[in-house]
Structures
1.
Amino acid sequence: MAQTVSEMDVLEKKVRDNIPYLQEHISDVKIIVDYLIEMHVINLNDKTKFLNDRISRKDQIHDILEEIITRKKFDVLIKALEKTDNDTAVEILTTNDKEFADFIENQEEAVGSSTKDIAKLEAEKSTLEIDLAHIQTVERDIRKLLEEKTTRIEASQTGNNDKKQLEKDVKKLQEELKVLNKEYKEKTEFVKTITQQYDEVVALNKILQDQKREKDRKERDNDREQREEDRKERDHDKEQREKDREQREKERQERDHDRDQREKDRKEREIDREERVKERKLRDLEREKRDQDREEDKKERNKDREERKEDRKLRGQENEERKKDIEQREKEREQREKDTQSHEQLHKNVDLILQIIGQQNTKDGKCGRNETSEASETREASEANGPPVLRKNNAYDLRTESIRKNYRM
């Protein structure tokens, strides 16, 4: 587990150190995002966030790298870079740094050893700085002495032996100066190396301390979250027990209520059964009464039917009598019409006869007038007496007889 965590830390450091380079050289951001979504590193709903057109490509890559660092999915990032043919970026992130990996294999030892290395490097750096200062002092003295010797050679009027000696001294000083310059350069390079190592160790120590603090913080956060979860679970268990208790109480009340309801229903059924018995008895009494009423109604209907039969017979007899009366009145009316017609015809005949007789009497004189008077009286008497049908036939017979007599005459 320590080795896995250390490898993650190495990759994280490499990613963080190379973010500017990756921002410049990574291409095909969409392919990387699609692969990360496929590997469930990024949610599908967050695709638009990482491919937002309103931000630059560098910002998009920076957001993706921050998400990778947060989720510790560096191997997925390397595979995504391989898909986009970013070989240089892949090579940077997969460089074998065994020394660094071994150095941070155990973070606690690394922190302690890095602290010792920092002190050691600081001591070596101080010693080298003192040596460099001494070399610079000696170099200045040699240069000063060299200048003096050179000046003396140039200004000297002495013999050749002294001049040769001065030239030898100058050469020796020049050689010493070269040696000092070489030593100074070597120590300067060594100081630079020590300084670089010191900076790297300080940075590494800071990273390790930050990681340790972050780890401690995460552990404290996890402990706090665990305690909070335990507290929530206890509260939840307490609430659940309270709910269970309330549920049991509710079920007990429901059982009591059901028992009371069943008892109440049983009593109601008893009451209903008694009421049904009473109703059945009442229905039996009502049925007997209805049977008696129907029997009495039947007798009354039979009696009414007999009475209606008698009434129909009487009405039939009355109708027959009315028909006979109507026929009789019709016959009498027809007879009166016939008599009236006969009477009118008789009057016409009498008037005609009287006219004829009058004409004859005019010829015969007085006899004719008397007969005419008699005939007129007879007609007036006939008219005063009415139609012959409604009276006796005496007047009719007398008048007829008178006419006959006049006619004979």
Note: Confidence is low (pLDDT under 50) at residues 1-5, 103-116, 387-396.
2.
Amino acid sequence: MTLSDTVDGKIARWLNQRTEIGPKLDSIADAAMYVCLALSLLFLRADLLADEAIWIAAAIGSFIAAECFALLKFGKLPTYHTRTAKTAWLLVGIAAVNLLIGGPAWPLHIAMTSVIVANLESGLLTYSLKEPISDVTSIFNVREKQDLT
């Protein structure tokens, strides 16, 4: 899943096939993958997920907070696609595979921490930007796309 999510964006940029709706569709697909992954893990490893509920709740809460903040400020959900968020998604994928093969919970802790960090960056971007933009590498290079407030 993570690989296809990475490859499709690179192919679109390589073929110069970027559109305004592309990042929005990518964000919807990301959310759908997270939901499917969570439901699958809940079905297959509910025993372990119950023990790790605080980590998962913190990650989900940070996501909801970042999305709501952007919705309140800009009237729409963010489509930043930062490197931090992509790294978090990769770590979530690794943690999920680890859980499915009966591995320990610590990779999940790292993954959930990375999700929280990615959502904090999203919130900082929303706070800093005057208007919404898509496909930002990180908060550190956002000046190339738009002046910060």
Note: The chain is about 70% helix and 0% strand.
